[in-house]
Design a protein that fits this description.
514 residues, alpha/beta, 15 helices, 23 strands, globular, binds 2-aminohexanedioic acid, Ald_DH_C, EC 1.2.1.3, oxidoreductase
Length: 514
């Protein structure tokens, strides 16, 4: 069942401009193409929305300078007062919920409900960060010496460089920015060159929130551009923390460069998330979770379910239900009511999907459903595709790598040990799930020798995490943690303080001297 008509690029351009204006982006900010500038496109048609100026090297330099200057002021503002800025930002995001969601749909191709969810994720993290602004707790430790107090304080860190990806064009920015601002840091943001418009809208709202709450304008700077723009941030010694979301390839380049200057690094790289479905699983519940996690967002979340590891005894029944559910997925215009799967971000993404499907078949994989392009005549420059399920004889190379498209590989197992070995036998370690009604199996999955991922779930899919937990993963996923729990600590520096309030000077470890 395929949406028959697609919107026209001209209409999308007009709608995007209206939404941008409503968010306070001045018309001069778009259609300012100049040499080496960016092109904002919409994956709905593959058409061009407008040209945008990319930041020059001097502009990036100036942005970091302004953020560094603002930091000197901002770090001294009491944390609860910093929370006022984040609170105002959350209010503005709420007021512009519809504007932002439509921009996310037009630019990233998300269906309306998921685009609204992305905006909600921004509002949620603002709430979290406002509360956090009164809870940046350090601890007091027992000193081994009489008349001494041993404690730790958390201080603002500096300028945070945020590099974000197209697939969560604004939520991941907000995780970093809301927390960083509450922590007393300032932010320079380099969004994906595939989603510059949504970033203009968010930056305008934050500028307004800063003005409304008397925060220095330099608490946030947006720098649009491609790879070189990101490199300037990565190499700038004034950027204390580089928080980068994207591919493993990007992380491999960013990591050593930041490490070489002893900068701090927070990496959110690829995932190759799996769900184990055991023989006791509630299959109907599992199917709903699987389909949302594997086909939702057209398979373009870092938490997307990419591997299904099913017990032999239930594989037949489960796959029948999954294939049936995939048949109900409406692929098409993400602005249209009833669409569940929008376009891939680009034709290059569909080519990568085709290559992976060919490789899987060469390895003996059998496509159970999907993989076909749709709406190609209507929009030859767009990349609509039916999500695919492929049964694999083994966890071959193509299964072990992340293809950013809706392909779900299915493997079967006999013992839970076997399932865990398959589960952990990939280079990435972001998100994971087990579907079971057996408590022993569930606990085993969550134990030290169970799932090796940063996120491990029971009877719920791999994607769609709440903001309250720490988000991130191990191995090639990069080890970073963002969003909730105590992820804020990455955005602050810890000072250990020993105070001697006695009139003698005992040395630690019983050392005697002088
Ligand atoms: C991402 O895909 O980069 O857990 C982030 C989720 C979302 C965030 C995904 N809350 O799927």
């Amino acid at each position: 069942d395929i949406g028959s008509s697609l919107p026209r690029t001209e209409d999308l351009r007009r709608r995007a401009q209206e939404r941008l204006s409503a968010c306070g982006v001045r018309p001069g900010a778009w259609d300012g193409a100049r040499d080496g500038g960016l092109t904002a496109r919409t994956p709905l048609t593959g058409g061009t929305l407008c040209g945008l100026p990319a930041a020059s090297p001097q502009e990036v330099e100036a942005a970091v300078g302004e953020a560094a200057e603002a930091f000197a002021v901002w770090r001294m503002r009491p944390a609860p007062a910093r929370g006022a800025l984040v609170k105002r930002l959350g209010e503005l995001l709420g007021e512009h919920r519809e504007d932002l969601a439509e921009l996310v749909t037009i630019e990233a191709g998300k269906i309306r409900s998921e685009a609204l969810g992305e905006v909600q994720e921004m509002i949620d993290i603002c709430d979290f960060a406002v509360g956090l602004s009164r809870q940046l707790y350090g601890r007091t430790m027992a000193s081994e010496r009489p008349g001494h107090r041993l404690s730790e304080s958390w201080h603002p860190l500096g300028v945070v460089g945020v590099i974000s990806a197209f697939n969560f064009p604004v939520a991941v920015w907000s995780w970093n920015t809301a927390i960083a601002l509450a922590c007393g840091d300032t932010v320079v943001w380099k969004p994906s060159e595939q989603t510059p418009l949504t970033s203009l809208a968010c930056a305008a709202l934050l500028t307004r929130a800063a003005a409304d709450t008397d925060a220095p304008a330099g608490v946030h700077r947006l720098v649009l551009g491609g790879r070189e723009t990101g490199e300037r941030l990565v190499d700038d010694a004034r950027v204390a923390l580089v928080s980068a979301t994207g591919s493993v390839r990007m992380g491999r380049e960013v990591g050593p460069r930041v490490a070489a200057r002893f900068g701090r690094l927070l990496l959110e790289l690829g995932g190759n998330n799996a769900a184990v479905v055991t023989s006791s699983a509630d299959l109907d519940l599992a199917v709903r979770a699987i389909v949302f996690s594997a086909a939702g967002t057209a398979g373009q979340r870092c938490t997307t379910l990419r591997r299904l590891i099913v017990h032999e005894d239930v594989a037949g029944a489960l796959l029948e239900k999954v294939v049936h559910a995939y048949g109900q997925l409406r692929v098409g215009d993400p602005l249209a009511e009833g669409t569940l799967v929008g376009p891939l971000i680009s034709c290059a993404a569909r080519e990568a999907m085709d290559e992976a499907l060919a490789a899987a078949q060469a390895d003996g994989g059998k496509v159970l459903t999907g993989g076909e392009p749709v709406l190609q005549t209507e929009a030859p420059q767009a990349a609509y595709v039916r999500p695919a399920v492929v049964r694999m004889p083994a966890q071959t190379a193509v299964v072990r790598r992340e293809t950013f498209a809706p392909i779900l590989y299915v493997l079967t197992y006999r013992t839970l040990d076997e399932a865990l070995a398959l589960h952990n036998g990939v280079p990435q370690g972001l998100s994971s799930s087990i579907f079971t009604r057996d408590q022993r199996e569930a606990e085993r999955f969550l134990a030290a020798d169970g799932s090796d991922c940063g996120i491990a779930n029971v009877n719920i899919g791999t994607s769609g995490a709440e903001i309250g937990g720490a988000f991130g993963g191990e191995k090639e996923t990069g080890g970073g943690r963002e969003s909730g729990s105590d992820a804020w600590r990455a955005y602050m520096r810890r000072a250990t303080n020993t105070v001697n309030y006695s009139d003698s000077l005992p040395l630690a470890q019983g050392v005697s001297f002088l």
